[in-house]
Fold each of these.
Amino acid sequence: MSEQNQSFILRAIKDVAIGNISKPQITDPHDIIVQIGQTGICGSDVHYWQRGRIGDFVLNSPIVLGHESAGVVTEVGSSVKNLKIGDKVAIEPGVPCRHYTVFAATPPHNGTLSKFYKTASDYCYKLPDHLTLEDGALCEPVAVAVQICKVGNVKAGQTIVVFGCGPIGLLVQSVAKSYAAKKVIGIDLSQSRLDLASSVLNSADGVFMPPPMPKKEDGTSHTTDEESEHSAKVAQLIKDKFDLGQGPEVVIDATGAQSCIQTGVHLCKKGGTYVQAGMGRENVVFPITVACIRDLTIRGSIRYTAGVYPQAVDLVACGKVQPQKLITHRYKFEEAEQAFETVRRGGEDVLKVMIEGVQ
Amino acid sequence: MATQTETKNNSFVLSGVKNIVYEDRPIPELKEPYDVLLQVNFTGICGSDVHYWQHGGIGEFKVKDPMVLGHESSGTVLETGSSVKSLKKGDRVAMEPGIPCRRCIRCKEGYYNLCSDMRFAATPPYDGTLAKYYILPEDFCYKLPEHISLEEGALLEPLAVGVHITRQSKLKHGDSIVIFGAGPVGILCAAVAKSLGASKIISVDINQDRLDFVKKFTAPICSTYVSQKISAQENAANIIRENDLGDGADVAIDASGVEPSIQAAIHVLRRGGSYVQGGMGRDECTFPIMAACIKELQISGSFRYSQGDYATALNLVANGSVDVKQVISRKVKFEEALQAFEDIKDGKGIKVLIAGPE
């Protein structure tokens, strides 16, 4: 008879419920079992809930949601050296079987919104005493931000422009500052989010709200060319406002919005780097000739690679990145569906929503 | 010694310094779902095998208990674990003989050759491949295309070493390269350099036969130089002048491990050039550190092979870029293995292959 392991399960599109799955057992000597303490919600969790798929990953059978978690170790396998029972850990939720990768809460693999979660010990990082489990759970989006900066080759003394002041955009700005970037600029359409960047998190040295396209006199909607032209103009406005000269060394898009992608590419200096971190429409109108003529390096960034998660934990531990300032809502485990609904409806006031572990 | 028909897993064992015995070891069993049981078909001899035999150790690795030798092998699949998807019984494979832990940061970065818990065949305390049977995980077996023989498959290991050394040097198309040492590794580095589009390859050795071989093997791109008992700077100056290397070579590789070659390699490089230490010799040497400093050289070590090297080696053989068959001097039966070791110790031949027990 298996012990209770209450979990938040996505049964089918838009159909979530709290249910019981079997308690995980240690099967590999390197495994550990963690009692989950805190879980943050990511846009991808909401997307699977509402749409049942992201690209090639399709929901075919129920999965447990969640992947931004921290907890306390309750059991360790016989070969585990780095952790012991009672340790607080941040959990890196993508464990390759070391032949190919299994990522939590990506169909068909279960996520972390359970009481107990089993994972490999080398993917868990002990939290120093002064960090809470909320801090630990937020190491996941911090790791995403660290990876983005790694992919963009962000270095000390550079100027970085980040489109988007949502959780990822704000964390990318913070990480860039921790790398001693000379100037970090945050772009968003929401004044309150810009204020977060400039005053609360101090993640940006300057912020900017792009002006909307002026409505046409004849009332028709803008053509693709007109939108592209406007994006180029906005890029010039940003360069002028912040004295960016030829342009910043690195531009990071953390919105996925076509207008930001276009503006971002136009903003790049010759030989600069553009990183696509935000996820939006699968296909956009892209300034490919600018990319060509200016010899740009264009890279995508997804999740994190070797060494990144421990670096994220360090940045949070030493206070250089303060993700707990992003928490706007907190829910108990039984209220998980409400928590998801809060993220789904979104809005300026919703940044990071946390779900407490099963008590 | 039991006859072939009586033994189950006849193995060639180093039981002490300069002391080889044949032992019938237990047949290994599949343990992990990704394990593959192989029958070993051919094994080449490496200088390290000879060194363990003659000296009982290399650096910190000391042979404490009897150990099966050999690690340059090809084999045939006999059984596969429950998770194995890409291989089936009867498949012929090249065997990559070092299993890393897959958990440490080096493994995750792809530098699994630097894993501190590496279990490498015939590096104490791990048994090698000179036996009838051997177990490897699926992803360390490289299926040979139909037109590649098992003999060639056994050459992929030293070729992967050559691939790794050349990759460490960052040699690119059009570069000039000087390779010190025309033993198997130096020869294969030259072949890899040719496949990468090096504009000039100069092979350096004291042995004229080996130089003749490498020149033919990598024709028409390779020229040779016989090291003389003069200063390293003079040898280097000769190489530069005789080969029109201008400010010096773009890349220099040492595949000899001997001090005069290492020194000459540093002096033969142009400013900003790249040096790789591939050869293994004495732990310490007198090194032209100021030349390295003033010429702003990039200096790298090279150890075994890592992410992608074995697959690259297989491609080089499969597409005809490197004809490793030519490097095989002779093949011997399993019972004659000791004779093969004696030959290699005495410098006879380039690669000698030992057939697996029947």
Amino acid sequence: MKQLEYSDLARRMTQIKEDLRQGVEKPFKEVIDVSWGDPHRGGMKPLTFVRQVLAACVYPQLMNDNKLPVDVRQRAQKLLDGCAGRSVGSYSATQGIPEIVQRVSEFISRRDGGVPSNPENIFLCCGSQWALSRILNVLVNAEAAFTTGVLAPAPCYRTTTLSIEGLGGVVIPYYLSEEQGWELQVEELQQALESAGGACNPIALYVINPGNPTGHVQSRKSMQEVIRFASEKRLFLLADEVYQGCIYGEKEFVSYKRVLAEMGPPLSDTVELASFHSASKGFMGECGLRGGYVELVNLDPAVKKYIYTLFTADSSAPLLGQIALDLMTNPPLPGDPSYFQFDQETQHIKSTVDKNVKKAFEVVNSLQGFSCPAVEGGAFAFPRIHLPAKAIQKAKEVGMQPDTFYCLKLLEEAGVLVSPGSDFGQKEGTFHFRFCILILHDVLEELLRRLTLFHTQFMKDFS
Amino acid sequence: MNHGTSLLWKQRALSSLSATRRGLPKEKMSENGMSRAKVLTIDTMNPTVKKVEYAVRGPIVQRAVELERELSEGMKKPFAEVIKANIGDAHAMGQQPITFFRQVLALCSYPELLSDSIFPEDAKNRACRILNSCGGNSLGAYSASQGIESVRQDVARYIERRDGGVPCDPDNIYLTTGASDGIVTMLKLLVCGEGAARTGVMISIPQYPLYSAALAELGAVQINYYLNEEKCWSLDISELQRALNEARRYCNPRALCIINPGNPTGQVQSRQCIEDVIRFAAKERLFLMADEVYQDNVYAEGCQFHSFKKVLFEMGPEYSETVELASFHSTSKCYMGECGFRGGYMEIINMDDEVKAQLTKLLSVRLCPPVPGQALMDLVVNPPQPGEPSYERFISERTATLSALAEKAKLTEQVLNTVEGIRCNPVQGAMYSFPRITIPEKAIKEATDVGQQPDMFYCMKMLEETGICLVPGSGFGQKDGTYHFRMTILPPKDKLKILLNKVQEFHQKFTQQYS
């Protein structure tokens, strides 16, 4: 497994932070780290209702405390009723606490306009990436004569591709169309399959919608094309939808499951699909709790039995993560005591991120040599930088990818840590970097201010 | 794409053989697109996944859950409730959490509570310290893949104190999602090679089936070494040697796993035994994996927990600088019983730097361990100290829990040994009894006829007639022709007494029935 460019940057950041702690003079007082899709790290506050329920579940004596709203106490009671020994310290059933799995399936059905969801097809896991790696484990046959291939987008979130490679599979990249705002074009899927030729056995197609790092939200039409393609080429569809709660602008999120169902038979009865969601993103932002789930659609029942057994050896997903999923899929409703505050807090997060998206778009596109489509969804902006030839040359001389070179200088001189595009895969000769926009607005403004100053100087130095 | 992988698959582009000649699955779509074969079938799926079994949550547990459902729907049964004595889940059986831990975790979850007077000062201080080490001061931020640095430092200090001053480098500490995560990751690192060069991993029989499941999934070779039931499940080096010598003929043995205190057997290894194992691993160049999650669960007189790390270092540099060791601990057992938090750590000694880099990458794929579990581990390694407000209560809760377990361990051994046809070794530690049962020939035959292991047959009957869910010994491995079951000692004492009596009654009835 190849080392990420980012790891060097992260190490350098640690050194710089240590220098700052020791009082070394720098052009900045602290490092702004926007390399992670981590809202809480970016300063966003957890939702009060969520944390109150978690606290009451962890320390039930709090339920005697009238300071906690009635609906918090009721929810905590209900959740503890579903825990063995009424404790969040016990294991749960393999697929998760049955009441929570049931409620997650109801959420899915509501979200999808009534398309039925069967709790038997849902597994709560220690984060969506864990779930994805388990499903990949079933798909990727490391012993076969031909390596298992999984189609994945370029650019793609590196953890997924690492997961595929770590299991002995091979990634077949399909290029997203940057000119069309990172659209997935089915011709590219075809092209990717053809390039793979006889080199491997393609078994699955991974899509992430909304996109990471691209921020693109797929149109229904595009999703239908993907489904048809998967059916035609006999590919198992893996739909990573963890950013479904992060939508900006006019596009709407629709799930692959819903699109599939609405396409009717035979597709709706045959295309095999695994969709992934998590409590790490959206308004919850609870990355550290590790609450994720996978829903399986149209799987062979015999295979499902093996998948179930595979999950049994993992014991169970962390209880607090499962509870986070319950709260995410069943938030306070109008009329509930906690609703007002909950609504205020989520509205505040929404308006902050909307402002961030707008500001980032304006500022980044105003800089010479930058181009960035509007972020439609997800946690990141992924601008393209047209680096001057001199900079590219310098990068080569010091043995670095040009965008990593840019990112390192940005870190050293402006104290901003972003992720270089070369870690995600990009078309030859293009350069990008990714930064998180689920952060406090002040932090974003400071980041953009530093970027502007740095970039102006950089372009002068390398013109 | 990543240059490495794009080159890799381009290099593999050979000829344009047709799908059928390559042995790849043919298109099975019929003319109208109906009744087509699935993409993912039992033939196309990863074959190693099919070999995975995990008896602790296996078929007998599924039947137990069904019975629970039937009971709740009002169906009449010979029992009023199903008792899940199959799984090492202390809280499920009524064990109470440690108050201090839950207070700190509640404060970490909802820091507004820091202004609430119901919480003692030391809990508040601890919560602040933990939150300061979290991104955005929240349990909801990702931590570094290796775990929160300050927690790793605290774990290192705990290990140093536990091991009488033997130094521990926090860089060698990896926080994990329960001990299982660490164990499986290490096995992933160790397993490679093809055919006769395929990695072999030595594991005790009986063993905790996570090991056999992981080895099956990885396609590694499982090398069984038998613990000595007649000698209270002790480990004989000669048996290790026998197993190793034989295994060398068909695989490449690279690792030796040992669970101490043992699961399911409960034996606590003597210091001498641990030294012998270390010497053996050194001589045979085996990576040692020491599963020590039950390190506080030691009950029998004359038994003491000795950590592999401590013994290793006390054997001097010839061993301490060469033997590669990974030891595992968790928040799920001992006196905490906090399985649901999925807290754990591993300490890695003498691992090659390049391999460490690979380890880091492997761990990064699952991002980070659950942060509440990391916070809990911090409290476990850093409990209240004498003089602190929460100390008295902490000590009394911890002592009560551990002594209750010790009592129940003794009780279990005593009662089961009064039953003819059941022989139970002393439960020296951990959380289980693993008695040997005599199954009449007639029953063995009936079991074989229905394609069941005799002890599974026995346990299923017990479940149907008494509602008690145990795990048959065949799920853990046992000497051919012997039968066992594993039963936890976790139910509250009064309930346990009743359970043990029911087991006794059932065994007598069963023996009678099949005589």
